[in-house]
Amino acid sequence: MIRYLTAGESHGEALIGVVEGMPAKVPLTAEDINEHLARRWLGYGRGGRSKIENDKVHIYSGIRFSETLGSPISFRIDNGAYKKDRAGWPEKMAVDGDRGDVERVTMPRPGHADLAGMQKYEFDDIRPVIDRSSARETAMRVACCSVARQLLNAFGIHVGSHVTRIGEVGYDHPEEYLERRERLMKEGGAQAVYRAADESETRMLDPEMTERSIEHIEEAKAAKDSLGGAYEVIVTGVPVGLGSYVHWDRRLDGQLVQAICSIQAQKAAEVGDGFRNAARPGSKVHDPIVLDDDDDFARRTNHAGGIEGGTTNGMPVIVRGYMKPIPTLIKPLDSVDTATREPKPTRYERSDITSVPAASTVAEATVAYTIANALLEKFGGDSLPEIRRHIETHRAKTTD
Ligand SMILES: Cc1cc2nc3c(=O)[nH]c(=O)nc-3n(C[C@H](O)[C@H](O)[C@H](O)COP(=O)(O)O)c2cc1C
Ligand SMILES: C=C(O[C@@H]1CC(C(=O)O)=C[C@@H](OP(=O)(O)O)[C@H]1O)C(=O)O
């Protein structure tokens, strides 16, 4: 099993990550990771911080001559804001010494981790909560999960995503983007989907929807408000039989929903047409079993999102994520000063208007990690060649 840990405060010096359990001989370079770090900054609607950061990973261990060694892989990503912001972060986030005259933050923002976090850890200052709950952490998550993604790539399993909604602008039914998405998937799997989405400023597959979503973000900005949205993560090339129905925590659908909701501000997730299926009769939901041109089992449709009984059925895996609007608004919200208990409006310094395009790339990463572990659980081995032998034996069997 691959495990990872991230450490680091948003305005501290750097983010640190350690990935353990990665098999040996998987091709991996800093560039493979930096590509996805750059993609995480795509998307209209991000705030001032996006102009400051230039995320690049520094690899310390676990890789030699562009291949994994099977030993723990460790990374650092510097926080550009630490030095470039004029806020004095080296003093405010100092590891040594005492507080001195560093001011306490005492105005909690509704919707952020601020108040619950300070009550939980008994802080009289929100700063530590702001800094660790921040989605800045997702930069290191993307780095760690890109390692798992490399393992999947080696077996022709690809993960991609595209945004389906920003606030009020979005597709009402998957049919509206299905044709375009299917064509891309036929051409180049999930990779073709994410590359097409990356061309759009809001990571949408439809140019008209992109334009409308940009206008909507501008309207929200003018109204001093923020927006949420939705996206779809697709995995192509997935073998049959990952996950299981035999026990609750081995169900891959449950793990994938957690992979999405583990990301800051993601409040719902569905596998396949999950929400819509609840309102439809079984005859319009369950994907008919057919034989394809090679006499292999296939499905005529994919409302199940590639998973039945917690187990992959060979169709593309499809998971959708739903993000709430960003909690830091230019428009003040009602709150209470935790130091004086005086009701006061929140203060605004800097924030994204929306981060749905960024969240969709983080979701690719967490889904890749989940699928990579399911792959290792079934076909595990200590090196890429060993896993390949296990997969080939299985593929030969299932196509008999
Ligand atoms: C990529 C990304 C960027 C985000 N940017 C901001 C931001 O600029 N300002 C903000 O208040 N929240 C932002 N958030 C959301 C907060 O991190 C999140 O709402 C907060 O940690 C509380 O967690 P919860 O929403 O899961 O309850 C962002 C989330 C993601 C995924
Ligand atoms: C730094 C990132 O996102 C940050 C996530 C975030 C939050 O509250 O989650 C708040 C903002 O940070 P700041 O308050 O410094 O502007 C975002 O920019 C990033 O994605 O790398």
Automatic annotation (TrEMBL):
Transmembrane segments: none annotated. The keyword NAD does not apply. It catalyses: 5-O-(1-carboxyvinyl)-3-phosphoshikimate = chorismate + phosphate. It comes from the Bacteria. FMN binds at residues 132-134, 264-265, 309, 324-328, 350. Its EC number is 4.2.3.5. This is Chorismate synthase. It comes from Longibacter salinarum.
